[in-house]
Every structure is written in structure tokens, then in C-alpha cells.
From TrEMBL:
Matches recorded under NCBIfam families: UMP_CMP_kin_fam (TIGR01359)
Name of this protein: UMP-CMP kinase
Ligand binding (ATP): G56, S57, G58, K59, G60, T61, R169, G212
UniProt key word Hydrolase: no
Length: 233
């Protein structure tokens, strides 16, 4: 069991604030946790995994299985943006109009929301779901955190299957309609696939066939994390 940890950011540039008593965030030249035990404080590097895939590819469902099995903290970029969208924050209306049009929210805003969650987490193992969505996102995240992800999970799913899943989930989300879904898929293909290719060339990408039952797909995901955790010990 992981002990309670507090995040430490070495900062060089102020990035602004979010409302609701949120902390200030800065670009980070290094990011680590201080974990205390009977031997005294020690540095614990965060374990970061990106989970990528188009809308309806099953990212959230598989993240829930990974959290249950391997104890990661799940951070959904989409959920963080939607939560902010309905708040009274300075970014809410901008996020609403951007998501409604199927466009990508500015990198700085999304990274601030992710960093806020990471800073307050007791965990140091993070699944970042649905981010980065573009090369700009990727570069912004890596510059702010000061590190690359340890691995990247890509849920590869046919477009027809993703459209069917999104239309059938009926969660009342503003972006769950056929026109917006088609826009999101075009954006995903144009902007997200270069990120997938980038990490594939670096040997960090694990491509998962995201067609089938939840358990069948997780049978492909489980050995990836088992091998990583075994190698990290």
C-alpha cells in the first residue's frame, strides 16, 4: 500500500489560477513526490501512463479496470473539462463552446486542470485518459511536468464501432450527438494519431484491439501493466 504523498513542483513560470480555491500552477523543471516512512522522506517519481483512443473506444471503462487491479489514480481529461464547463470558473463558457464545436480546448487550460488533480492526489501512479490529444498538448504537458510518460496505451477501435458506442451510452453529454461525434473523430484522426505515431517510434506505445467485451479487451491490457510493475520493482 502506498503511503500518503505530497506533490512538489520546482517552478519557473506562473501559469495562472483556477477558481474554487484552486492552487496556483507553474511550469515544472521537475516533478516528484515526497513519501515519508520510518527511514525519513524520499523522492518518488510519478508514474504516468497516457490512455489514448477515439471517442467511444473504451478508455474510461478500461481505466476503471486498471485502477481496480493495479491501484492507479484515473484522471480523465474529458471529465475534468466537463466538470469545469458547468462551474462558474473563468474557463467554463470557453470550454463549453469549444467542446460543443468538436474542437480541442487550449493546452494550457487542460494541463492546469490535470496538474490540480495530481497535486492533491495521495497516489503517485496516474492514468491520464484522453490526453494529449495533439502534438501541441504533448509538448505542453512534457514541458510543464518535465518528463515523458512511462508508457502509452492506445485503444484501437474502428470508427463505426466508436460511433455506435457513443450514441448508445446515453449519458446526456453535450458532445454525444452524431454531428459532434463525427467532428471529434475527424479531429482525432488529424491531431491525435501523430501523437500515437510519436510514442510508437519511441517504443512506448502499446496498441490494444478495442473490439470485444470489456473483459476480453482487458486480457490484452493486464499483461502490459503486469510486465511494467514487475520491471519497476
Amino acid at each position: 500500500m502506498w503511503r500518503r504523498a505530497t506533490a512538489t513542483f520546482k517552478s519557473s513560470l506562473f501559469l495562472g489560477t483556477l477558481k474554487h480555491n484552486a492552487p496556483r500552477f507553474t511550469t515544472a523543471t521537475g516533478f516528484h513526490f515526497q513519501e515519508k516512512d520510518w527511514m525519513g522522506p524520499k523522492q518518488v517519481a510519478p508514474v504516468i501512463t497516457f490512455v489514448l483512443g477515439g471517442p467511444g473506444s473504451g478508455k474510461g471503462t478500461q481505466c476503471a479496470k486498471i485502477v481496480e487491479t493495479f491501484g492507479f489514480k484515473h484522471l480523465s481529461a474529458g471529465d475534468l473539462l466537463r466538470r469545469e464547463m458547468v462551474s462558474n470558473s473563468e474557463y467554463g463558457s470557453m470550454i463549453l463552446s469549444t467542446i460543443s464545436e468538436g474542437r480541442i480546448v487550449p493546452s494550457e487550460v487542460t494541463v492546469k486542470l490535470i496538474l490540480r488533480e495530481m497535486e492533491f492526489s495521495d497516489n503517485h501512479k496516474f492514468l491520464i485518459d484522453g490526453f494529449p490529444r495533439s502534438e501541441e498538448n504533448r509538448i505542453a504537458f512534457e514541458q510543464i511536468i518535465g518528463a515523458e510518460p512511462h508508457m502509452v496505451l492506445f485503444l484501437d477501435c474502428p470508427e463505426e464501432e466508436m460511433v455506435k458506442r457513443v450514441l448508445s451510452r446515453n449519458q446526456g453529454r453535450i458532445d454525444d450527438n452524431i454531428d459532434t461525434i463525427k467532428k471529434r473523430l475527424k479531429v482525432f484522426e488529424a491531431l491525435n494519431l501523430p501523437v500515437v505515431d510519436y510514442y510508437a517510434k519511441k517504443g512506448k506505445l502499446y496498441r490494444i484491439n478495442a473490439v470485444g467485451t470489456v473483459d476480453k479487451i482487458f486480457e490484452q491490457v493486464r499483461p502490459v501493466f503486469e510486465a511494467f510493475e514487475h520491471g519497476a520493482k
